[in-house]
Design a protein that fits this description.
single chain; 282 residues; mainly alpha
C-alpha cells in the first residue's frame, strides 16, 4: 500500500505540473495512466474496494425486477446495471470513470474539477465510491446548467440530500456548516482519531485563503473550522460536510483565476492530502 501511495502522490504532482504548463498531450497521457492506476489499484487500498466489486457482480446478475430490491440508491443501481451490459469487470468501468475525471481537471482545464481532484474530497473516491459518484455527477450537471441536479445526485447517495439546504452562496454555506459543526461537537467521540488530519485540513484552507485572497473572510473561517470539528467527529457529519466543501470549491473556482486555482490546489494537496494518506489507513 505504501508503494501505491507514493506513486499516487508522484502522479498527482505530475498532473499539477502538466496543468501549470498547459501541455494537453502530456495531460491526456497522464489521464489514461491515472485511469488505469486508480482502477487496478490493490484491493487493500480503500475500505470499500472489494465491496463495490462484489456489488457490481450482484447488480449485473440481477434482473430488473430484482434490481430495485437491493439496498442501494436507484440511480446508482440503474447506472451500474446499464454499464454491466457493456463490461463484465467493474475495473473497466473505473478506468473510464477516473480517466474522464482527470481529463476534465487537466486536459479540459476545468477549475472546479481541478480543486475537486487535489483536495481531500478525492480520497472519498477510494473509500466511498457511491458518494464520490454523487459529488462528481453534481459538479458535472452544475457545470452544464442541467436542472434537477440535486434530485439526480440524491439518487446516487442519500447523504447528498444536504445539497437541498446549501446553495452556491456564502450565507448558505456558512449556515449549513454551522449546523453540522454543532451536531458534530455535541456527538464528538474521536473514535476515528483524525485530529491531526483535521488540523492540517483546517490550516490549509486558512493558508490558501490568506495567500490567494490576502484576507480571511467569514466563509474561509467557517470552512476551516468545520474541518477541525467534522474530520474528528462522527462519520455521518463528515459525509454531509463534503458536499458543503464541494460548493465552497465551486464558489472559489468561479471567482478565481486559473493561476489562483492552481496554487490553491497545490497547497491543499501538499498540506492536506499528502499527510492524510500516511496518517490514515485508506
Amino acid at each position: 500500500m505504501i508503494a501505491w501511495k507514493i506513486t499516487f502522490i508522484c502522479l498527482s504532482f505530475l498532473f499539477l505540473i502538466a496543468i501549470r504548463l498547459g501541455n494537453r498531450f502530456i495531460s491526456l497521457l497522464l489521464s489514461i495512466f491515472a485511469g488505469l492506476f486508480m482502477a487496478f489499484r490493490p484491493l487493500d487500498v480503500g475500505s470499500d474496494t472489494r465491496n463495490y466489486m462484489v456489488i457490481f457482480e450482484i447488480i449485473s446478475l440481477a434482473t430488473w425486477e430484482e434490481l430495485f430490491l437491493l439496498p442501494y440508491e436507484w440511480g446508482y443501481l440503474a447506472c451500474i446495471k446499464i454499464v454491466s451490459f457493456f463490461v463484465q469487470d467493474f475495473r473497466y468501468f473505473l478506468v473510464v470513470f477516473w480517466f474522464f475525471l482527470y481529463y476534465k481537471a487537466s486536459y479540459a482545464a476545468n477549475k472546479v474539477f481541478t480543486l475537486f481532484l487535489f483536495s481531500p474530497t478525492l480520497l472519498i473516491g477510494v473509500n466511498g465510491f457511491r458518494q464520490f459518484c454523487a459529488m462528481f455527477l453534481f459538479i458535472l450537471l452544475y457545470e452544464n446548467k442541467i436542472g434537477l441536479k440535486r434530485l439526480l445526485t440524491v439518487s446516487f447517495h442519500l447523504s447528498s440530500i444536504v445539497l437541498f439546504l446549501v446553495k452556491n452562496s456564502s450565507k448558505s454555506i456558512v449556515i449549513t456548516l454551522l449546523m453540522l459543526n454543532v451536531g458534530s461537537f455535541i456527538l464528538i467521540d474521536y473514535r476515528y482519531n483524525f485530529s491531526i488530519m483535521a488540523i492540517l485540513s483546517g490550516l490549509s484552507i486558512l493558508l490558501v485563503a490568506r495567500l490567494i485572497k490576502r484576507k480571511l473572510g467569514v466563509i474561509d473561517l467557517s470552512v476551516a473550522l468545520s474541518m477541525f470539528y467534522l474530520l474528528s467527529g462522527p462519520k455521518i457529519f463528515l459525509r454531509l460536510a463534503v458536499y458543503v466543501w464541494m460548493m465552497f470549491f465551486i464558489s472559489f473556482a468561479k471567482n478565481s483565476t486559473e493561476k489562483e486555482v492552481y496554487f490553491a490546489s497545490l497547497f491543499i494537496f501538499i498540506l492536506t492530502v499528502c499527510p492524510i494518506l500516511f496518517l490514515t489507513n485508506l
